[in-house]
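Hi W., the iron/sulfur cluster complex you wanted:
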Amino acid sequence: MDFQKQPHYLGIDLGSSYTKFAVINDDGDVVNSQVLPTFGRRRERFNMAVDLMHKNYSIQKTCTSGYGRNSQKSDIQKTEIICASVGVSQSNPVHKCIIDIGGEDIKVIESGSQGEVIHFHMNDKCSAGTGAFITEIAEKAELEIGEMSDLAQASNANRTINSFCTVFAKTEILGWIFDGVPIEDIAMGIYLSITDRVCKLPIPHGLPIFLCGGVITHHPFLKQLIESKLGVEAQVASHPLYAVALGAALLARKSDSQESRK
Amino acid sequence: MPQLESQIKLKSLLKNYFSNLNGPIAWCTSAGPAEILRALGFQVYFPENHGALLGASRTAQRYIPKAHQFGYHSDVCSYLTADIGAWLMGETPLTKAYGLPAIPKPDLIVFNTNQCREVADWFSYFGREFDCPVLGVYPPRHLEKVTKADIEHVSQQFQNLIDLGEKIIGKTMDMDQLKHVLDLSKTGTQLWQNVLETARQHPAPLTFFDSCILMAPIVILRGTSECVDFYNQLLVELKSRLKTGFAAVPNEKVRIYWEGMPIWGRLRSLSDLFAENGAAVVSSTYCNSWIFDDFNSRNPIDSMASAYTKIFINRGENAKLALVKKQLTDFAVDGVIFHDSKTCFNNTNSRFGLPQRVRDEMGIDTLAIDGDLNDLRFFSDGQSKTKIETFIEQLKEKKPLLL
Ligand code: SF4
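Structure:
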């Protein structure tokens, strides 16, 4: 039997910056994943991607997640916190802490071995320490996002951005540039200040830590900094960018099997 | 939920109240000694009620920036900034709702800092605007225990208020009248408590969001027979709901306690959000704040001093924890939402570790959401929805999510 005709499930994570798609088969294996900038008013690319997945796979159910979860027609909608917890639990069925650093927020999730959310914390009000923060500051410092991790690794500096506010932080970086601070140290400074923000969140003690989200995907060096600041080992979740989309797909599969049991 | 008869009655009751604000008028804080003012012969007007109206009608957003321009910081109480902003712009929602040309002109302004110091600044501003006498009651604050000395301190200030009120009204206060008013207050507040306690039943016949509207009489008509009649009727209606097992939230699966101020401009959408997710907000610190157990007409001044000094907002962290714990048990609550209100530090209890203590001591999950009573710039619909939906799911699914 053509494997594509077997039942598949689609999870869509409509995040503040990017939309991530994950298609899983009935065994829960990811068979397709992709990422697009989250649409503004133009939905063509999004619609094309969804159409293509329906063409290529026999999608039984779709679950949307993320800020835009209610903006699309889907079978079920679940928050990104629930989906991250389920997504990361697939390969890590243990009591754990998930730190999801996204475009506009950071979430700390205490997650049970079966994917249940035990407790969570989500930063509000301000984008400090998130992907949007990095993008804005890096732009001011004329840093390429893709090069930041390599640059920071070459730095021994221990200087962080003081300001909590993205606008003030940009001014602070401008000061660094005027002072002739080397570019590696600027990259390091941005990472250190993110690490600071992350480590100030209420992270439960004694649990294995899993990192996911767009920021850790594009800035792998942050893992090392977070580990040394927290004094514990952390792992990057498999499919870190797609943890929420994967969780959504798994929940779509779950709702399908619950319905067929009825 | 289908409307209660009392909700319809409330409209005419409020219209009647606002249309008759024409005697000598005293302004008073919501947990201030309104009974003394009524017994002296004043009609009582409550600026906080006006602040809540500005929030609920979402006109606050237009007025708050005006107060900022005038020198009030954006972190300052958004009842104050909305109210002063509206005044500076010469507008009030009372015009559209009840045909009042402006807020009623005070003959005496009274505040009680049992809730916050902001009311002192707010009410004093209007004292200057109207060239009106202002009297502040300054009780001891943040008390774990309320002692005899604390009560005497407040009673003395109530006595000063009576002296000043008598001068303004031009006659001495009739003690029997004060006792009568206090009896009405006591009955009103007991009925209000009975109303709120109907939500102890599963499923609850009313939620916090309904109570935020139904509470108007216990704030602005406390000490009148209209208030007593209103809650008597409401209670009859709710009791009949209890008999039929009526659910304010159909399919109630989760019971929540709301700690902190309402988000007035989002009452409806939050009510819908909780209901859609099968969660009933069954009890709250806020609505409970107008239950005054200590009122006793045999000892009117001291009992009022005690009741108004013992209010939740004026208590220390341990006393607050004990009060919240009792509610969580009585109402069989599954989870607590702490509203961290940006401009009301005083009514925000998530900043000194109370949520953690509730979790540790009761094993009940908590969530803090950021927002504000009136200033919706501090509230994110998207983030709050995500947090609330996750929290409700977390409470529901104490069972595994994965297959
Ligand atoms: S208690 Fe809070 S909301 Fe009420 S008047 Fe004081 S600061 Fe404003």
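The pocket of iron/sulfur cluster is lined by residues B 48, 77, 79-80, 115-116, 118-119, 344, 346-347, 373 (CB under 6 Å).

W.
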